Amino acid sequence: MGFDVGIVPYNPDGWGPPDTPAVPFLSGRDGSSTALHVPFAPFSRSDKLGRIADWTRNTNFINPSARSGASRDAVFDFALDDSAALAAAADNDSSFRLVDGKPPPRPKFGPRWRFQQRPQLPQRRDEEVEARKREAEKERARRDRLYNLNRSSATGGGGQGGNRRDAPTLKSSVDIQPEWTMLDQIPFSTFAKLSFAVPDPPEDLLVCGGLEFYDKSVDRINPKNERRLERFKSRNFFKVTTTDDPVIRRLANEDKAAVFATDAILSALMCAPRSVYSWDIVIQRVGNKLFFDKRDGSQLDLLSVNETSSETLPEAKEDINSAHSLAVEATYINQNFSQQVLFRDGNKLTFDEPNPFASEGEEVASVAYRYRRWKLDEDTHLISRCEVHSVTDVRGQRAFLTLNALNEFDPKYSGVDWRQKLETQRGAVLATELKNNANKLAKWTAQALLAGADMMKLGYVSRIHPRDHFNHVILSVIGYKPRDFAAQINLNTSNMWGIVKSIVDLCMKLNEGKYVLVKDPVKPQVRIYEVPQMPLRMITWKSLFLRKSR
User: Fold this and answer.
1) Which of 8, 210, 305, 375 lies at a C-alpha separation of 20 to 30 Å from 342?
2) How far apart are CA 207 and CA 452, in angstroms?
3) What pLDDT score was predicted for residue 234?
4) Within 10 Å of residue 438's Cβ, how many Cβ atoms?
5) What is the b/e burial string over 135-171, where b = at least 16 CB atoms within 10 angstroms of the residue's CB?
6) pLDDT at position 150, please?
7) What is the C-alpha separation between 172 and 282, in angstroms, rounded?
8) What's 113's DSSP letter?
9) CA 163, CA 313: separation in Å to the nearest integer?
């Protein structure tokens, strides 16, 4: 069966079909005209032309009642076809972008959203850290300027407080004379690598003095139940150097050891890497013996305050918050505290010999001197005089105690108010003291270890008012075991003895004479100077021992 094209009318007037066709556009098999049934879709010239007819279409969507008559014309009828609409919709969907008009989610916790930390880029976090550091430095400088201004107005004088870590601020503890010869300088970095183990426990040769019993009621003191610090002007405290000790003289004559020192001198050597201020030790080589001494009025007789702190202290020596004034105040507090926490009922624990430095009938502080000997090597022994301050009964056994006091002079320097923090944040207070007074606490711990103390008591003493340096109150008393506290502050006993052993070995190689070991006021190192010898007629055994100092 052929395909009937139909009659194509001719248009003599131009292109396209004539305006009025003479014959039907398309006729069916029955001769009826179908031109009226051909759909016509108007279009503009800018529209794209689609299909004229589509024989692949699915005509099932047509109403069944009209399917018989319209199925043959369905290929031309796009009015009921949704493919064009779907294509248009697809074109529109490809260029359509959905805009989110919903409001942002509200935080779950209301106004606390500003405290929630959001993730930040590392660069931005570093910038904020640096900005906070700069702000802290500005605030510190502003506070220092304000303090210096108030101090000038109060004292009627000027003076600017600079950074005490600068070289002009820190001075040497002893004047280095031109005739002294520097033999060696040892940086503290070499001390950190040293280690030496001594036999434990050491040998007790002699114990002198007398001890009063500890009053356990002071352990219940707290900031809300503070106790006024008393003054003990009638009791004498002795700070006797090594060669002025009659017991050490006797032990040296009996050839009991080759090296002699005190616990204060040994602790200064053992904790030297933690020190900032300058100090000095006199070393005397007499025959095959070595004596470690201190000068009269030495820096070792005073307790430093805020030595390792980053906060600056006033430079004027007459200021109550200067380094020297605070050292004198701390020493005074420490002595009075060590006597106030005892039972003063006349009951004392006596030992082999009385106090070797006290006169008959003289009232002395509660103290016992333990002369102990350590073995450094096969040919070298060391004897040291070690102090304990009190005794107590623990489970039916006697326990020796050392008593020391930390002092608060102005909360703005430490940033921690003891009256507010001691009960609730005692660890934070101790951590601040370990940061500001690392050397002092390390030396106290070393002295307790040398003396074989069973417990070291630390008192927290504060001024009644920050500008009153004469009146103080006890806020709290806390006890620690020396070995546990040494581990807590990272004080290694093997390293301590390694430092002492290295200094002893170095000095044993020197010739007979007098030497001075000086901590540099600026650099972390110690220097050894040789002091010229006295004339031969003045060198006697008596001249090698210094005058007794108290």
Assistant:
1) 305
2) 12
3) 85
4) 21
5) eeeeeeeeebeebbeebeeeeeeeeebeebeeeebbe
6) 58
7) 14
8) G
9) 8
pLDDT of residue 331: 94
User: Which tokens is 500 given?
Assistant: 């002492």
Contacts of 512 (CB under 8 A, 6+ apart): 285, 286, 287
Element (H, E) at 223: none
Contact 432, 487 (CB under 8 A): no
Interatomic CA distance for residues 74 and 53, integer angstroms: 9
Instruction: Identify whether the C-beta of residue 450 lies closer than 8 Å to the C-beta of residue 263.
Output: yes
Going from the C-alpha of 513 to that of each of 284, 456, 510, the distances in angstroms are 6, 38, 8
191 touches 273 (CB < 8 A)? yes
Alpha helices in 71-201 (DSSP H): 83-94, 122-155, 188-191
Beta-sheet strand order (sheet of 348-350): 181-187, 525-531, 513-519, 280-286, 289-293, 259-262, 381-388, 367-375, 203-212, 348-350
Q: Is 334 exposed, middle or buried (0-12, 13-18, 19+ CB in 10 A)?
A: buried
Residue 322: name the closest of 312, 335, 336 by CA. Answer: 312
Chain length of the chain: 550
Contacts of 263 (CB under 8 A, 6+ apart): 384, 385, 386, 387, 446, 447, 450, 451
Query: Given this model, what pLDDT does residue 341 score?
Result: 94
DSSP class of residue 114 equals G
Q: Which amino acid belongs to residue 243?
A: T
pLDDT of the residue at 549: 36
Residue 170 identity (one-letter amino acid): L
Cis peptide before 105 (omega within 30 of 0): no
Backbone angles phi, psi at 27, to 5 degrees: -120, 145
Q: Report CA-CA distances (Å) from 253 to 233, 259, 291, 372, 542.
A: 36, 12, 13, 16, 13
| Greatest alpha-carbon span in the chain | 161
460 SS3 class: strand
pLDDT in tens, 175-205: 888 999 999 999 999 998 899 999 888 999 9
Closest to 26 in 3D by CA, of 76, 66, 71? 76
Q: Which residues of the chain have pLDDT under 70?
A: 1, 20-102, 106-127, 145-169, 534-550
pLDDT, one tens digit per residue, over 127-147 is: 677 777 777 777 777 777 666
- The bridge status of strand 181-187 relative to strand 381-388 is unpaired
